[in-house]
Amino acid sequence: MQSNFGLRHVILTIGLVLAPAPAFAIDEALLPRNLSPWGMFLGADIVVKVVMVGLAVASLVTWTVWLAKTIELRRKSKLAVERTRALEGRMKLAEAAERTGDAHDAVAQLIQSCAKEAELSGGIVDDGLQERVALRLERVEAAMSRQIARGTGVLATIGATAPFVGLFGTVWGIMNSFIGISESHTTSLAVVAPGIAEALLATALGLVAAIPAVVIYNHLVRGIANYRALLGDASAQLMLLVSRQRDNREFRLARAAE
User: Which stretches make up the MotA/TolQ/ExbB proton channel domain (predicted)?
Assistant: First the structure.
């Protein structure tokens, strides 16, 4: 009895081994196993690869703008503070213009514009000169503000669009995963996981590009606002300088009349 049972068991085992595999069986050796970020990038669809490369370039642009603008803001702000402090002393407009020479920084442009208007006015210091100087200073301030803010707009664009670009890559990758399920006739996690992982990597790259761009943009906006305040201080010092020269001139005329 036991011999017959053992024989049947052996026959059944041999039959299971020799039975043909189902038509939809998956060769696990052919499935991707490298789920590192680089491996997922190499295994991704061409569209997802383009999205990932674009997001990586956007992230590189973000950090490049941050480095360049940080250096520029520090250098120009330091120079603006130095020139503004020099204007606080007993200095005449002609002397201030002579000290700036051929410099092209913002405060130097303010001083030179003010001195140019005084020269065009024939040395007549009156209310009209103050109004014209104020107009010139306002225009120079606006031009210098636009110059220092150049390049920051791209950060706002990256911060606003990068998550949606990453989401597009995610949708495309998941769509490819469903196509793979349809072609392989199986819902095995080994088949679905690589495509979903590649899709989620696109979303992660979108966030990696967007979050620093938003933070850096806000940081640079505050730095630019501080720089504009420094230019406003310099303009105020120049207006005070012109006003003092006018008062001194009127005082000298009054003393001469006596």
Answer: 120-226
Which tokens belong to 147? 């110059």
Q: For the chain, first and last CA: distance in Å?
A: 145
Which residue reads 């501080």 in tokens?
226
pLDDT tens digits for range 88-133: 777 777 788 888 877 888 888 888 888 888 888 776 666 777 788 8
Please give the average per-residue pLDDT across 206-225, as a whole number.
Answer: 94
Please tell me the distance from the alpha carbon of residue 64 to that of residue 17, in angstroms, as a whole number: 62
- CA angle, residues 153, 155, 156, in degrees to nearest 5: 70
Q: Cα(253)–Cα(222) distance, rounded to whole angstroms?
A: 47
Tokens of 164: 């949606």
Three-state SS at 142: helix
Tell me how long the chain is: 258
Q: What is the pTM of this model?
A: 0.74
Distance between CA atoms of residues 63 and 141, nearest Å: 27
**Nearest Cα to Cα of residue 223 among 13, 56, 78, 9:** 78
Amino acid occupying residue 231: L
- Conformational region of residue 222, where left means phi above 0, alpha means psi within -120 to 50, and beta covers everything else: alpha
